[in-house]
Design the sequence.
């Protein structure tokens, strides 16, 4: 008795839970925090993936076969600048979000 | 078939915990609870109980381990006393807030300071607003029966509240009495397997429990707890009725004793209720119309039943085993006064039996005598019934002045 | 199960309220990426509790419980015991707590968990102060660092958390850093596969508390490794291995000067810090096999 395997599995049903519980996997628009945004000089990029590795928000994707090889999820990028700081080629510049950015 | 055993209160608690087939045990020794921790360890070591025993380093961790385990969907057990319960205080509230229906024996012992190893109710009374139900035992059979019932009540989907089963340190924990113990099959039929009704920790059905909650929802979650207590009032009586049907022994949230035509009633709680009943019998033989009202469930407090049972009574007093410092009277007295507020009765508050002082027949007799003089003739209110003379001058130390 | 409103690449939501440049966020993403879905997590109040979410919304997509500040290890031990009692021996129980919740108020329950041998993967992300409550000093704050409760700089050296765990005979303990993600991920895997308690003590840079621009989080931690202020090593069954040995330790000032919290530390104290950093590094290298 009392094993995980023997739990009755009757599909899904929405149940009232009493007390504190989090069950909605959502994301805030932390991109609105950004003061500066990373701008990649794609011609200098060697697609090493270091910017992606160190991005705390995990918002960078490297496309090895595309000219715009570094893609950012702008809804979430906080503009911390770690990618620019760590880029071994120095090909990411932080530019102001104000004005024409 | 059920059979009789000579058991002390702690062993009776252990028998009921075993009967509930708990799967995780975490306990930490403290006088007078320690033999519960020991006997559960024995039960696991000799194979009588199939459970993981987590030998924790504090009561704080004891309840934390029990809470973590219970959240995965098994019954978890721990037990404590006195300052151990005080150390648990933070997790006591946490377990209640996430509606983990843990059943925990509390072996009542005074809180320090002064240091005392002996019984009073200050430890559990200090937790009375923590969101746990509290059942108080009069004798060792109560310890067994109420612990069994506590699993059913706490885990009922209408209730979902943790429950303390309070037994008086030494007076019950270490007193051998004859106890009728159920066979495992009978216990299984009554308690049943554990069903997780609310939130849980399960990698196959994930959710995150107990996160930060704003003022936008906090009040509603407290209200949900209050509805659990409201439901517990009827669930308790249902479970007690079923218990009586299966095992023949009767329990109620509040137990009237010789109230039929009683003029004078002493309300009390715990093991001293037995002494009070005995003295009431003696006074009845002398023609005095006295009775006793024993509070079994302090949380939820059965205020409607208390009011109904005392509606024809002329004099009521309450004997508490904790001091209720700074309040107008002690904790049980406050509840009884609130229950009787529309009845215009003068209810006296008696405080006694602190730090292990015995509530003797004489003490109870003094209370009834004092009540005959319309209370408060002899004593202040609250009346410290077993206070020595010159209480302010009991230790005199030479010191530089 | 979760209502997924916004998808994420991994188990952690992308838009979470960690400060820009937060090291903790990078650590948790990598840890959960290695451990996968068959994991439950216990997190105490503190910066990492933001991943437990606010109200009905969660920042992680796995089973978890937000415990109290001092009982992370005990809650995790209870969860492990409960799962095992139901025949589940596979799920990783992750305790994920900061330095205050581990080395200060949670040290007792951590000690109990390790001594009992409970199979819990305990990760202490060490941002070297109580950052969530406003940068108050903890016992893991390094000597010289200014915090809101050590405004003139902390006078005493930090507590050695790994040494404490090792003194318990812990089967696996390691330090790690956001400056070396592959090393961190390898250690998480190793800890997960350890049949017993394990500890990973991760240097978690905090731009807000340490006083440097968010862009320099990795650079600061790299400087810590290169100067020996944070040594990457592991202790496995009592055997110590220093994983990263810089050819020559850089002067510790290279690390301190990057951060506002060490501003104004007098030269003689920098010398003392330099001496203790070098001695600790050399002692670990001497022990290293």
Sequence:
């Amino acid at each position: 008795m009392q094993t995980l395997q023997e739990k009755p599995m009757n599909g899904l049903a929405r149940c009232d839970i009493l007390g504190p519980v989090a069950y909605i996997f959502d994301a805030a628009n932390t991109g609105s925090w950004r003061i500066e945004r990373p701008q990649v000089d794609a011609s200098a990029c060697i697609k090493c993936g270091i910017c992606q590795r160190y991005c705390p928000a995990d918002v960078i994707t490297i496309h090895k076969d595309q000219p715009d090889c570094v893609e950012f999820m702008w809804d979430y990028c906080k503009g911390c600048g770690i990618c620019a700081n760590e880029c071994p080629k120095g090909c990411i510049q932080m530019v102001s979000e104000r004005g024409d950015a | 078939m059920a059979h009789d055993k000579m058991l002390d209160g702690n062993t009776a608690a252990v028998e009921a915990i075993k009967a509930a087939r708990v799967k995780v045990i975490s306990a930490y020794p403290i006088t007078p609870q320690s033999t519960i921790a020991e006997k559960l360890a024995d039960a696991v070591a000799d194979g009588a109980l199939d459970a993981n025993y987590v030998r924790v380093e504090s009561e704080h961790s004891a309840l934390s381990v029990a809470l973590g385990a219970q959240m995965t969907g098994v019954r978890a057990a721990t037990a404590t006393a006195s300052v151990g319960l005080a150390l648990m205080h933070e997790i006591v509230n946490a377990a209640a807030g996430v509606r983990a229906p843990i059943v925990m024996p509390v072996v009542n012992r005074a809180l320090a300071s002064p240091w005392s190893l002996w019984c009073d109710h200050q430890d559990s009374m200090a937790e009375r607003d923590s969101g746990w139900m509290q059942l108080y035992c009069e004798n060792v059979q109560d310890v067994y029966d109420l612990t069994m019932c506590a699993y059913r009540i706490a885990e009922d989907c209408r209730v979902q509240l943790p429950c303390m089963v309070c037994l008086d340190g030494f007076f019950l924990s270490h007193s051998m009495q004859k106890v009728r113990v159920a066979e495992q099959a009978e216990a299984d039929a009554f308690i049943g397997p554990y069903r997780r009704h609310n939130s849980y920790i399960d990698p196959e059905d994930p959710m995150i429990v107990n996160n930060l909650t704003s003022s936008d929802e906090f009040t509603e979650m407290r209200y949900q707890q209050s509805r659990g207590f409201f439901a517990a009032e009827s669930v308790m009586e249902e479970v007690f009725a079923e218990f009586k049907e299966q095992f023949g022994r009767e329990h109620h949230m509040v137990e009237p004793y010789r109230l039929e035509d009683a003029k004078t009633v002493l309300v009390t709680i715990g093991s001293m209720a037995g002494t009070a009943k005995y003295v009431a019998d003696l006074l009845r033989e002398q023609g005095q119309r006295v009775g006793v009202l024993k509070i079994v469930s302090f949380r939820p407090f059965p205020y409607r039943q208390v009011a109904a049972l005392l509606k024809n009574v002329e004099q009521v007093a309450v004997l508490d085993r904790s001091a209720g410092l700074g309040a107008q009277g002690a904790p049980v007295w406050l509840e009884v006064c609130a229950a009787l507020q529309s009845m215009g009765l003068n209810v006296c508050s008696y405080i006694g039996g602190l730090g292990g002082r015995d509530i003797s027949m004489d003490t109870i007799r003094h209370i009834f005598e004092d009540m005959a003089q319309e209370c408060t003739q002899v004593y202040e209110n609250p009346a410290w019934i077993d206070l020595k003379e010159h209480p302010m001058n009991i230790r005199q130390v030479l010191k530089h002045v | 199960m979760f209502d997924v409103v916004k998808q994420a690449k991994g188990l952690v939501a992308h838009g979470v309220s960690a400060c820009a440049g937060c090291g903790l966020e990078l650590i948790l993403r990598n840890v959960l990426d290695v451990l996968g879905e068959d994991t439950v997590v216990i997190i105490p109040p503190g910066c990492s509790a933001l991943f437990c979410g606010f109200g009905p919304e969660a920042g992680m997509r796995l089973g978890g419980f937000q415990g109290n500040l001092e009982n992370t290890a005990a809650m995790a031990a209870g969860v492990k015991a409960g799962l095992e009692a139901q025949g589940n021996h596979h799920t990783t129980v992750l305790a994920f707590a900061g330095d205050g919740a581990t080395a200060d108020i949670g040290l007792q329950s951590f000690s109990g968990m390790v001594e009992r041998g409970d199979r819990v993967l305990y990760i202490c992300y060490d941002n070297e102060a109580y950052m969530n409550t406003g940068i108050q000093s903890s016992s893991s704050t390094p000597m010289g660092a200014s915090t809101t409760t050590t405004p003139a700089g902390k006078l005493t050296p930090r507590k050695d958390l790994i040494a404490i765990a090792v003194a318990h005979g812990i089967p696996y303990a390691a330090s790690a850093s956001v400056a070396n993600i592959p090393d961190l991920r390898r250690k998480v895997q190793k800890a997960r596969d350890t049949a017993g308690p394990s500890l990973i003590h991760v240097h978690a840079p905090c731009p807000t508390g340490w006083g440097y621009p968010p862009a320099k989080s990795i650079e600061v931690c790299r400087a810590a490794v290169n100067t020996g202020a944070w040594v990457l090593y592991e202790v496995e069954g009592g055997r110590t291995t220093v994983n990263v040995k810089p050819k020559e330790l850089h002067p510790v000032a290279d690390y301190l000067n990057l951060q506002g919290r060490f501003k104004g530390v007098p030269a003689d104290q920098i010398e003392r810090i330099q001496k203790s950093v070098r001695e600790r590094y050399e002692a670990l290298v001497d022990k290293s096999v």
Remarks:
- The first strand of chain B starts at residue 3 and ends at 7.
- The domain at 3-247 of chain B is CATH 3.40.50.970 (Rossmann fold).
- The mean pLDDT of chain B is 96.
- The longest helix of chain B spans residues 215-247.
